Amino acid sequence: MNKYIELIDKYLSNEMTDAEKLSFENRLETNSELKKELDTQKQILQGIQSAGIRSEINKGLKKGSFKNKAGKWLMGVVIGALAVTTVMVAKKSSQEKVEIPSIQTTIRKEQRLSVSNQEEILRYELTEENNKNWAEADKQLSSQFFLLNGKRDTVVETKGGIVLAIPAKSFFKSTGELVNDQIELEVKEALNPLDIMRAGLSTTSNGELLRTGGMFYVNARINGENLNIKGKGIYANIPTNERDKDMMLFDGKRTQDGQINWVKPKRFENKLSTVDILGLNFYPNHFLDSLKSFGYAIKNKKLTDSIYYSFVCGEERENGSRVIVPKKDEVKNSLRAGPAVVTPSLCIANSVINGKTQSENSEMPVYTNCEIAPSRIRAVWDKKFNNTLLATKEFEERLQAIFKTCNPEVLNLYLHNLNKKMYEVDSMASGLLNEDKSESNAVFKKFYFRKDGGVSINESHMKELQNYMEEKRSIYEKAALKTMEELYQKEHILDEKAWQERSVHDIKEMDRVNKLFFEEVQTNLESAYGQLGKPYNRPTTFNSVTSFHYESLYWGIPAPCYYSVPIMTTGWKNVDAYTYEATAKRQTLDYVDPTSGKKALIRYTPLTLTIKDSKNYDRIVAYLIPDKLSTFQRIPFKENAYKENLNELIHYSAVVFGFKGDDIYVNCIKEAKVGEQTLDLSLMSRKQVTDYSFLNSGAKTDLIGELNHQLFEHKEVLRKTKLTKRDEVKRRLMPVVFPCAIQQAQPTEAH
Amino acid sequence: MKDSQILELLKSNHYARAGEKLYSYFPVIKKLVLKNSGNREDAQDLYQEALIILIKKVQTTDFVLSSSLNTYLYSICRFLWSERLKKKNKRIEVEFEKDHQIFPEQELEVLYKTESENKLAEKAFQQLGEKCKALLLLFYFKKQTMKDIALQLKFSSEKIAKNQKYRCIEKAKENLQILKYSSHE
To answer: Which domain holds residue B132?
Structure first.
């Protein structure tokens, strides 16, 4: 402790002997620090005096003012009155919201009133109960008077921070007459313990001690006549530091001895606090979970939104206005018009897509059985709806239950009653669901019993939001529908192009394959005839296969594809037939001429190409380029490798293309030898590929065409895979977004 | 009640009773403040200040009331209020009745300075804990003995109460230093 304090105190309190005093005063002369301490301490003592005087004089002033005014305002006869004296028993934050008497509140316009400067303690003779039982509190607390226009909604804030929202037409005379004139609203408040104690307000309810969070008194008069509150009631927000759930609102009942007994406790309405609406989750139950399990980044709201909002409900679709999307079968038929053609591409395509089957044609899923349309959610999941009933944790919770009901009407109740309290809407929802869905009904009843309150919103703002909501819903629905239709239309156009491209290619391929076969047969026949010592006249022309009927040329060869060739010569049919068969089957021809006993032997020996890391490629195609023939031939894929039997009469080169994304990987064997070989593919630019030396043969043009076609096919596969994945995600999300549609759909599927 | 009687009450420390009587002078002050860009709270505050000054004056032995109490209070209030307005860069619009001017300018200067210091000291005191405030008020204002105070405030001995009193004063002085420092800023 500071060494001088005691000394100075003794000096100032006159507790020193004369000698001590003299010594002290001498020290003061020389010790400036002591002098300073003395001055400060003197000031403190003066401060204590001031504080003491102030508190004492205050008591007197208050008393004086009360006497003064009471005497002055003995006047007027008051007929029929009610006022509400309330105590809020709260401990401490946000704003407690009290409603007097209760039901609904709408504040149309906030209008600040001129708060009168005149503060009086007691202006009137009679209490709101029309008696003279004024309590100590009435006498100790000064009144705040506000003038209201009875025709208008008014918000009033008291000095202590109580906010009163007073709807128009709230006050009536005892005769039942509505008061439209200037109303005098009187408020007294004691919100902190100090004020409460000073006012001598009791905190007992029928003898039981209450823990109080503050008290206030409200009365309304016109020309001194007490008024009644009717209609929606006025709404009070009482400031507190911390909400205490046990706090209740008590009505103050005056007693004969000037005390107040607190009666009729009423629970506070749980006023909702709003949060940022974009931070809430308005997706259907498990929507995000599902997306996460599909490997989507669910924290990216743009992405998740785009997926959710892509579920078009078709509410905006009018009958007949649907964009015409050709059905898969129609496309096929239109392209395949004319004589039915066997398509070699089928057998080729199936073997090359590396385990991926071609997906169905793109068909836009439209859910005609609308439940909770995503466009509806999108219209309100918007910053505009911050600070409304929707921007609350409580609504987020209800929305989950609403999704389960699959009933857009339930959602509409919440969207269209932003001015109501949550529990009121809960009750409406429960009523709406009363008839059929007992389970949902119970859920909303449970919500109702929580008595969750509302969020203040003025009517014009609400109307504005509702218009906004409707407008946006329609816009979003239309936009989503349009986007989806465009998307699917685009896919359909691509589908159609693919079919065209494929059919053109198929016909060309048919010609080419047959030409190849024809040439190989000719080569083999030449050799066979030579071995048998017979002359062979090679036909000079090759007729396009398309001019023939394939069925008539069917020899029952169990080959995957049917090759055909015109038989141009008479005689030697047996040899020809054997040679044809051997060539078609690519099996060794070992023929003994029954007449001459001479032998004809043409060997076919297997080549097996295995591609290293073949799984890394989206698509692999392998070709043989025969030196004697004018075009290439494709190596079929069997049992994890590319296998073909090579004709001993022909020298082959082999080329393998691997496609991965936009890249082409290539390997080329100049001299393809029989036996097994493992190939590594290396990356090559498109230009390098087309310039490549293996294309020096006559097969060049054909091979480039083939390569382009394979690239096209490859892109198609990628497109279809993407589409399939997207549709798959949507298909799997369907029961999440529209839970009832699926429930209803399932039994029919089972039939 | 006559002015002299009120003064007697003040001299004998019957502040509450005096205050009751003094309320009758308040409306004049209220009018003054309301007319000069103040509200009722300001008026109450000002009136309290003026009364404290009066009371402290009265308690000094050489105090002689040279005019009516009403005039005296009005004069103090008028002066204090114009000082406060000066601080806010506002000028008093309503002219004061000249005959209410009873203090020489010099005396008022001293009065104002003492008053400002006093207010700061009071603030330093009000910043103390409840027990400290009670202890200091009982001792220095109510002039109760340390023994009674120890009993009332439940100190285990008079000595402990006394030590506590010193600590409270020390704390108040500290508060005052800080307040002075920050008010100079």
So the answer is: 117-185
